[in-house]
Amino acid sequence: MRVAQPRRFGDWGVSAACRAKLSPLADFATAPLALTGRATTATYFWSGTTHLDGPPDRQGDAAIYVAFGRATGWMKFPPTFTPQLLDVHGAQRSAPKTGDPALFPHGRGPQGDVIRITNYVRLVRTE
Question: Mean pLDDT across the chain, nearest whole number?
């Protein structure tokens, strides 16, 4: 794993999952799906927000991430209900912090969100 070495400032951190912090980070020039509807490759970035809901033995196991670009999921439609990989919805989602993405071959949640686990981190100044 490569770790960024921010220079000149000591107040770097991972952004909370809130619109005011994350929206300015989105570079729509490199994620045209948000503006044009055209599918592109997505890069997923972890936020600093942990989910504390769920069963007691799994609280804190998931965190929020933001997809810049295409956000895919496995949807099932009648009559066959065969999973189809589609661009399914908005860019803010949650996923397990650790584990094997192969354990989620058709994603997770109602839209079958693709699970990568090995997302990137985008540092922001925390001042």
Answer: 75
